Amino acid sequence: MENRREWAVSGMDCAGCAAKITRAVQRLPGITDPQVTVMSQKLTLTTDGTTPEAQIEDEVRKLGFGITAPKAHGHNHGPQDGPWHSTAKGRLVIATGLLLALAWAIRLTTFGVIGHWAFIAACLIGVTPVARRAFQMASMGQPFTIEGLMTIAAAGALMIGAAEEAALVVFLFAVGEVLEGVASNKARDSIRALSDLVPKTALLEQDGKTREVPAASLAPGRIVLVRPGDRIPADGRIIDGISGIDESPVTGESIPVTRGPDEDVFAGSINTEAALRITVTTAAADNTISRIIRLVEEAEESRAPTERFIDRFSRWYMPVVVTLAALTIVIPPLFFGQLWDVWIYRGLALLLIGCPCALVISVPAAIASALSAGARRGLLMKGGAVIEAAAKIRHVAIDKTGTLTHGRPQVTDIIPVTGSDDTMLVTMAAIEGASSHPLARAIVQRAGDVALPPTSDARAIAGKGVQAVIDGQTLTVASPRHAADAGILSGDLLDRARQLEEQGKTVAVLFGERVLGMVALRDEPRADAAQAMQQLRDLGVAPIILTGDNPRTAAAIAESLGADHRAQMLPQDKQDTIRDLSADGGVMMIGDGINDAPALKQADVGVAMGSGTDVALETADAAILRDRVTDVAAMIRLSRATMGNIRQNIGLALGLKGVFLVTSVLGITGLWIAILADTGATVLVTLNAMRLLRHDPTKVTFKR
After folding, report:
1. Calpha distance 359→355 (Å, rounded)
2. What is the pLDDT of residue 191?
3. If I label 610, which of 25, 253, 513, 556 is the partner at 20 to 30 A Cα–Cα?
4. What is the total count of domains within the chain?
5. With pLDDT > 90 as the criterion, what percentage of the chain qualifies?
């Protein structure tokens, strides 16, 4: 029986580390689909039990990495590597540095021969752990690794008498690896910080008393007390109290919002004003913060097309450079009578340039930083493929109800044809009672708490309305268009419906064999909707509103916002429109994640609006947690900044490699410069990617 297993792995600095582990474990019998994520420091794989778990762990440890099984409860955020000087790589830096200093001291105080042997000893002691890892990886079918190249270069330098430079190269290599680790840990800190948002303890109410319990132990249905100034320990619903809630840790929304009874709150939010009693609705492992962390971590597995290309490129890049190094060593002495020592030295320098670490990490480092920066501001994207697609967007299609508008329409006009206002409204509420559509909820809410007549055979008419049987009569609540097509709505009533629609209102008609009445509702656009449309246009992106509303209502909303529109659209119509728009560039669809599912899937990037709901986090390619329409433009800006950062990283990595490859062949630069070209480029690329952690895509620079 196959099982999916997970481990926490420490000591990984770049995508090259992940590749080494992946190749090592996938050679083991019964192991399939191994996946290693650097930022979250996880190894997951499927095993049929043929290979014992202890053997899997041993294979990883042989490569020089730490590995432990994650905790049984709660969310695993990867192992803590500790301060740099407490790690194996940190200790190697200290040891090689001391040995190098000692060798220089011996050279200065003794004869040259003794100093030469001191540098040989420093080199051999420093390179031994590196050589051991190189041998282990070679035995696992991975000969082309930086450890292997480093070992060959150090041995070759000793053979040609460059002991001092060999020892210096070993030291610089160790320093570079530590710097890579420090840079990677900085990038991980933002993900780790998310887990720290949820308090470790909670005040649980039980038998009329409160007691402190671990927040991870809270189960749905439990009641907790949250005092002013405390963080909310779990996703829940307020049952008593009204207070301002600072949701910025979760959604990035800086202004506290007032929440009261029957309203939902998120784990990690801060209660700012009054004590609240909250019913827990979600287990700790599935609260909003945990889902966000899980989404960011899993997004690493969704690689961008650019990343996949770089991965393929790096597989032949290193063998090509190794071959070039070998030719550099052999051809000049054999065919042109050049000195062997000179060209062996230059060939060894080329070997050190042959590791593609900086190139391999250039994309995933930027993607990880962007995902983390977005998550802190309520912008969630499921991986590099989504970021790359979002950067190319040329059209944004936006659903109206609940997305562009608040999704809380209010009844503005009640027009009964027979009977009273209350009778007609109660009848409509009974028919709409089972629907979750915002218009249906508005009608039910307006009807109040009165007893509703029983219904039977209730069913939805996709994109048109709802139908049910009351007292043996089949009644329908639908749009004026559907009522008119059915031959029910005409004359003065049809004219009145059109007048209401021209005012930007949505009209619902109640009819059986004839019209019984009409209700008009209006759902106001969000306060930032017009600004969002302007920001999209400034980005060169064309916004278009897709709605099931009538043309007059849609036109009134679209005109006020400065956007194009399509009206009276069924789910299939929205999907077809997305397909047509795709012919003129990438399309992003913004919807609620349920009714717009076909269109969300058809679009290049489907984005769900929603405050941390399961739908918002799981249905689409991306999610906007703050319910701000301007965050659509922010998501595109973040994606474009990320792709710009990736291009910088690739240029930096290839540029440095190219320059030092040429200078090494010409003899201008030597071994220690070559190792700086490798590890230095990796550190520079990582630090450049980390700039995205400070990037705020919600800030707009207006052109004069």
Report:
1. 9
2. 61
3. 556
4. 5
5. 28
Same domain? 426 vs 354: no
Contact of 272 with 244, CB cutoff 8 Å = yes
**Which of residues 409 and 330 earns the better pLDDT score?**
330
Q: For residue 703, name the pLDDT band (cuts at 50, 70, 90).
A: very low
User: With contact defined as beta carbons under 8 Å apart, do 402 and 592 qualify?
Assistant: yes
More confident call, 633 vs 354: 633
Same domain (yes/no): 552, 683: no
- In the numeric block, which tokens belong to residue 235? 């996703």
What does the H/E/C string look like for 440-458? Answer: HHHHHHHHCCCCCCCCEEE
Beta strands in 113-235 (DSSP E): 201-206, 209-214, 223-226
Q: Are residues 248 and 310 in the same domain?
A: no
- d(C-alpha 673, C-alpha 353), whole Å: 10
**Mean per-residue pLDDT, 396-407:** 83
Q: Are 313 and 266 in contact (CB under 8 A)?
A: no
For residue 611, give the nearest of 267, 98, 136 by alpha carbon: 267
Residues 513 and 604 grouped into a single domain? no
pLDDT tens, 59-107?
898 888 889 875 544 444 444 556 777 777 788 888 888 888 888 888 8
Do 105 and 7 fall within a single domain? no
Residue range of the domain that includes 306: 86-191+297-366+643-694
| Sequence letter at residue 175 | V
Closest Cα to residue 461, out of 425, 500, 432? 432
Active site annotation includes 564: no
Q: Cα 583 to the chain's mean position, in Å?
A: 27
Between CA 558 and CA 544 the distance in angstroms is 8
Residue from 609, 641, 289 nearest 438 by CA:
609
DSSP letter string, 263-281: -EE-TT-EE-SS-EEEEE-
- The residue from 489, 522, 555 where one domain ends is 522
DSSP element (H, E) containing 237: strand 236-240
One DSSP character per residue, 214-236 reads EGGG--TT-EEEE-TTPBP-S-E
Question: Which of 558, 561, 528, 533 has the alpha carbon at shortest distance from 546?
Answer: 558
pLDDT, residue 375, reads 83
Residue 285's closest CA among 76, 78, 74, 77? 74
703 located within any domain: no
At residue 5, the 3 state secondary structure works out as strand
Burial readout 22-32 (b: 16 or more C-beta within 10 A, e: otherwise): bbbbeebeebe
Catalytic one among 399, 604, 621, 678? 399
**β-strands 542-546, 564-566 pairing:** parallel
Radius of gyration of the chain from Cα atoms? 32
Query: Which residues, 6 or more positions from 433, have their beta carbon under 8 angstroms from its beta carbon?
Result: 440, 444, 452, 455, 458
Within a domain: 648: yes
Residue 373 is assigned to a structural domain of this protein: no
What's the whole-number mean pLDDT along residues 16-33? Answer: 86
- Mean pLDDT calculated for residue range 489-502: 91
Helix%, strand%, coil% for the chain, nearest 5: 50, 20, 30
Residue with tokens 């207070």: 243
Tell me the pLDDT tens digit for each residue of 284-319: 888 877 877 776 666 655 666 776 777 677 677 778
Tens of pLDDT, residues 532-568: 999 999 999 999 999 877 788 888 889 889 999 998 8
Confidence of residue 184 (pLDDT cuts 50, 70, 90): low
